[in-house]
Design a protein that fits this description.
about 210 residues; mainly alpha; elongated
Length: about 210
């Protein structure tokens, strides 16, 4: 019972930190029009992002197994806050790094004279991949023998599957306000969005290898 309570407390902290951090790049990209830039995030994109964020908070961290050394950690003070100033500052710092990457990508794409639709695609791909990176970071360092988190794998593969659909379907791209015709760099950004699929598949195969070989 004590172990379960500690696991719940730790995972709630992780979920709240991720929730704070992941919205910093989204808010930053949404405020870009106020600085004279194009509208890069439409309502449909925000809905798409929330379809990643909400299951991450409610399923991924709920399913996150306890660390092997959880019971060797000294008890926390009785008055310890679930999410204190230090945790908020850390989360905002992680989110600020994600926003810096988004801004850097936009500057590079603008220098390449990309269209508004291609800028939107680059922004969306950067935010989504940054979202998955933050989710992986908040889960913590992987340890040998630790149980798999199938909810995390499902989110990564689902995100990559949507990217593949966008890569193959021009009408779907138009519905998302993305380039109808994929040329060079636009296709590369969709490939970057789909890249986590390869990572997840390889990771699953590596984990399964010891069980497949007697």
């Amino acid at each position: 019972m004590l172990r379960a309570g500690r696991r719940v407390f730790v995972n709630l902290r992780k979920a709240m930190g991720y929730l704070f951090a992941v919205h910093v790049p989204i808010v930053g990209l949404s405020l870009l029009p106020l600085l004279g830039g194009p509208v890069l995030l439409r309502p449909i994109h925000v809905v798409l992002l929330e379809l990643i964020i909400d299951p991450a908070c409610s399923l991924v961290f709920e399913a996150e197994p306890a660390a092997a050394d959880l019971m060797r950690v000294p008890p926390r003070p009785a008055d310890a806050a679930l999410f204190d100033v230090v945790a908020v500052t850390r989360a905002l710092g992680v989110g600020a790094m994600g926003l810096a990457v988004v801004v850097a990508v936009q500057l590079v794409c603008r220098a390449a004279s990309m269209s508004e639709e291609s800028l939107r695609l680059a922004g969306l791909a950067t935010v989504v991949d940054g979202n998955l990176a933050m989710l992986r970071w908040y889960r913590g360092r992987r340890r040998a023998g630790r149980a798999a988190n199938r909810a995390f794998d499902a989110i990564v593969l689902g995100t990559a599957a949507l990217a593949v659909l966008l890569l193959l379907s021009a009408p779907l791209r138009r519905a998302f306000g993305l380039p109808a015709e994929l040329e060079g760099i636009a296709a590369a950004w969709l490939a970057a969005l789909a890249a986590p699929a390869g990572f997840a598949a390889a990771w699953r195969l590596l984990r399964a290898a010891p069980r497949l070989n007697p």
